[in-house]
Amino acid sequence: MRGAHPRVVLGLHRSRHERRLLTGALDLGVTSIDTSTNYLGFRSHTVLAGMAGDLLPGLTVSTKVGYFPGRERAEHSLAPVRLYEAVEHAARDLGREPDLVFLHNPEHSLGDAVDHGGEALAQACAALDDATSKGLCGSWGVASWDPSPLVGLVDPTTPKPSVLMARAGLLVGIRTLDAMEALTAAWGLDRGRVWGMSPFGGSTGDPVWDRIDPRVFLRGGEGFSRVQAAFRASFYLPRVGTLAVGTDDPAHLGELLDALAAEPDERTIREYRALLRERLISQAA
Fold this sequence. Notes:
alpha/beta, 16% strand
């Protein structure tokens, strides 16, 4: 078994939830998993408890609340009572209290609360803060696919999350990068409490990874693959302390862990961000 890798979390968004993946991750030193109430057709928690209940005590488990089953499709809600109950159900279905519960994509409902978005966000955060104080989870955070709508809604009265998570990587636009930095500052979070997710924008099989060579973002990157370089650069776009990545192949996870030894070229990454900003300005002109 390798040494522990606290900077990498196994994400289960598109995972088949197989036991071999969890045991393989543990063998590699990855001891944290990230799931959500709505993953695997709202069955992720019960499936995990059924096929790996004996492994869960040895794992750090984060999950998310905010999506609920609807008649035809999932619906999103920031209603404090529903969120609190969702945390209760998560603990029950997992067979243990989650170590971390994220408020999942709050921006999806804030569009319906234009005049009182700050209040709606604060109340949703307060519900998770309350659940944490009652011992239903170890801590709480905010996970946002598009954090831009949250900027300007956070003030000193907004409960402070323990962790903030959003997309990371070379395919993330400058608006998202700026929004993450603004929220990090507004909540007074250090880098260790900022997580990235979806570093490949969905799949390493996307044609974009055949057209670009992310190894330019590494110092001496010739010894690493394009996928490894893209993964390593994701820790700086935006700057995060932990990265959640999904796979159903332990060998692929091991390849990504090897990339942690690579040294990012921060100057090239800064130049890339400057290019992203220039492009945004030119598009707006």
